[in-house]
């Protein structure tokens, strides 16, 4: 599914702003059909934003189940000869859309857009009631998984298996879109570099409506940043060749634009058009390295969250640009979309500015062994008919399909991460994950795949690492392991990394490492929770297979408020939640800028 940008032949109206809001009276949606009536404006909520922290009432923050967003929308009369599409950027974790009393679409999964054609149920010039029901429930069948506890008095509590707050709501923009009846539905591009880096190729495939396939023509043109056409062709698929190509490079992005136009037969005026940004580059795993454009790449940066004070996971362009500016200031060249796909605006910006992205599915919390291990207790198998089952895997497959379908054309995306910290030391994990790795390679054979490994699945215990191209390790030596003992932590980390290197010979990215820090807390020596307690990078520099370091986390973030091990959220951020730097920021900044200067000198 392509997005629906405005252009000469398409119009988009933003429905962002203030909507009427209400909690559902019952867990059963049909017991309270709010879409059949006009909601009062007594309670209103902003879109996009999480609803949890907007209000002061605890019952809203802790609500488990359905909520309703509603507003009136007027369909422009000028749209009468086109299709009318409603597009929801994200409804976390389940959304249902109603136009007046009519149900039009349902979507499962909280971090991907969905849309519906509503042309047949509204009239041009009509004002209609738009209601979006949003559900935040997580079960063993959802991705991410969770459980719901029901107390004797009927109170419902959401149990999450992941370490971040289960924010819910309309987290991304809602749009009303006008699209030609005869239109382009998708464009796929795959780039390559040949002739010793002098020539680029762009393989393209255009999908159109059923009507368009039989009697229409597709014309494509590749335009450079100066506005000059460098290659063009006719047909819905083909390969364009670019001589003296300008490559998309980390830190030095160059974007071509693939301009696709759809013509009815023998008619010189386009019925539809669509533009795709194209960064010509290659990504390959070569031995123990990851190459971008045939050169080794070393990742520096963070795992992040879409998490901000007050608005929760709601997308905010100002916060996004500020975060990117802080990444640049730090000397970071990359980040991971932990632990779910971000708003596509994040990838558009990374494409434009040469930031490298590791893109992740929302599969987090698939590990019953973590908490059981902390408390020395036995646990149920994580992958079984009663826990993460075949149904869960089907939903996981759906999430993977949506992720790759949406983000396949972004040059900034260099790797897909299929899951974060699953219980990969369990025998049944292979049966669960092997089909997912096969699917990922079928959907996109051009990018490597990985998963973030948790400590209990060491090099000898892990059951699935051979299915992946890159070893991604989340390790907290000196924090959860060798707590307060940096000398022991350094030795332990090096011993484990050398074991991974010797056994598998694959690139290793430290996708998480770090320590909780309370801003302003200082001591003379290295004491956990203080700003003076910092981890060493000497081990990374001694291990040839280590090709990247992503600190956990970019900024402090909110976690479940009933989790006693967290103090107003997770404090592993290098920045506070409101983006103030902690002491570790300058240490990292110096390291990463020095690394970049050294790598620049080496590549000359």
UniProtKB/TrEMBL annotation:
Domain of life according to the entry: Eukaryota
Q: What is its EC number?
A: 3.2.1.31
Give, as one word, the top-level EC class: hydrolase
What sequence ranges are listed for the domain Glycoside hydrolase family 2 immunoglobulin-like beta-sandwich? 183-281
The UniProt entry, under Pfam families, shows: Glyco_hydro_2, Glyco_hydro_2_C, Glyco_hydro_2_N
Q: Where is the Glycosyl hydrolases family 2 sugar binding domain?
A: 14-180
SUPFAM superfamilies associated with the record: (Trans)glycosidases (SSF51445), beta-Galactosidase/glucuronidase domain (SSF49303), Galactose-binding domain-like (SSF49785)
Q: Where is the Glycoside hydrolase family 2 catalytic domain?
A: 283-596
Q: Which UniProt keywords apply?
A: Glycosidase, Hydrolase
On whether Aminoacyl-tRNA synthetase is a keyword of this UniProt record, the answer is no
For this chain's UniProt record, which GO biological process terms are given? carbohydrate metabolic process; glucuronoside catabolic process
Extract the GO molecular function terms from the UniProt entry. beta-glucuronidase activity; carbohydrate binding
The family database entries (PANTHER family) matched by this protein are listed as: BETA-GLUCURONIDASE
Family per UniProt?
Belongs to the glycosyl hydrolase 2 family.
Q: What is this protein called?
A: Beta-glucuronidase
State the organism of origin.
Microdochium trichocladiopsis
């Amino acid at each position: 599914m392509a997005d629906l940008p405005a252009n000469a032949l398409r119009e988009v109206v933003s429905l962002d702003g203030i909507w009427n809001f209400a909690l559902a009276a019952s867990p059963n949606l049909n017991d309270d059909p709010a879409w059949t009536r006009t909601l009062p404006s007594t309670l209103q909520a902003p879109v996009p934003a999480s609803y949890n922290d907007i209000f002061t009432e605890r019952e809203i923050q802790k609500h488990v189940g359905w909520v309703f967003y509603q507003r009136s929308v007027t369909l422009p009369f000028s749209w009468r000869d086109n299709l009318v599409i409603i597009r929801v950027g994200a409804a976390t974790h389940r959304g249902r859309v109603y136009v007046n009393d009519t149900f039009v679409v349902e979507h499962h999964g909280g971090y991907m857009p969905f849309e519906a054609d509503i042309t047949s149920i509204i009239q041009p010039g009509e004002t209609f009631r738009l209601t979006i029901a949003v559900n935040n429930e997580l079960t063993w069948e959802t991705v991410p998984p969770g459980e719901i506890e029901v107390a004797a008095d009927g109170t419902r509590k959401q149990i999450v298996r992941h370490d971040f707050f289960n924010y819910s709501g309309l987290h991304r923009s809602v749009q009303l879109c006008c699209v030609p009846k005869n239109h382009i539905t998708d464009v796929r591009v795959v780039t390559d570099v040949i002739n010793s880096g002098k020539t680029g190729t762009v393989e393209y495939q255009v999908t159109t409506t059923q009507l368009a396939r039989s009697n229409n023509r597709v014309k494509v043109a590749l335009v450079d940043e100066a506005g000059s056409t460098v290659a063009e062709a006719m047909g819905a698929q083909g390969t364009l060749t670019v001589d003296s190509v300008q490559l998309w490079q980390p830190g030095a992005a160059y974007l071509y634009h693939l301009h696709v136009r759809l013509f009815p037969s023998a008619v010189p005026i386009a019925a539809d058009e669509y533009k795709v940004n194209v960064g010509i580059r290659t990504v390959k795993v070569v031995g123990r390295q990851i190459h971008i454009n045939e050169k080794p790449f070393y990742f520096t940066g963070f795992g992040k969250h879409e998490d901000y004070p007050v608005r929760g996971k709601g997308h905010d362009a100002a916060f996004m640009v500020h975060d990117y500016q802080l990444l640049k200031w730090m000397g970071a060249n990359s980040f991971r979309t932990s632990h779910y796909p971000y708003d596509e605006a994040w990838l558009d910006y990374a494409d434009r500015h040469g930031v490298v992205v590791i893109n992740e599915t929302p599969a987090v919390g698939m590990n019953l062994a973590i908490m059981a291990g902390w408390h020395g207790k036995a646990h149920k198998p994580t992958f079984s008919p009663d826990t993460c089952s075949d149904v869960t895997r089907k939903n996981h497959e759906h999430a993977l399909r949506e992720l790759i379908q949406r983000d396949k054309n972004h040059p900034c995306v260099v790797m897909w991460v299929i899951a974060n910290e699953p219980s990969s030391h369990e025998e049944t994990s292979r049966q669960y994950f092997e089909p997912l790795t096969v699917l990922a390679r079928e959907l996109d054979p051009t990018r490597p795949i990985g998963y973030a490994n948790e400590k209990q699945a060491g090099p000898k215990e892990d059951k699935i690492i051979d299915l992946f191209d890159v070893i991604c390790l989340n390790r907290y030596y000196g924090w959860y392991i060798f707590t307060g003992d940096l000398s022991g932590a350094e030795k332990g980390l090096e011993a484990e990394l050398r074991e991974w290197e010797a056994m598998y010979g694959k690139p290793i990215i430290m996708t998480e490492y770090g320590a909780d820090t309370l801003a302003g807390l200082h001591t003379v020596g290295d004491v956990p929770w203080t700003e003076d307690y910092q981890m060493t990078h000497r081990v990374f520099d001694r291990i040839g297979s280590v090709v990247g370091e992503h600190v956990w986390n970019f900024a402090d973030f909110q976690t479940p408020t009933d989790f006693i091990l967290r103090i107003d959220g997770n404090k592993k951020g290098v920045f506070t939640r409101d983006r103030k730097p902690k002491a570790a920021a300058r240490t990292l900044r110096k390291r990463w800028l020095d690394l970049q200067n050294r790598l620049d000198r080496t590549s000359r």
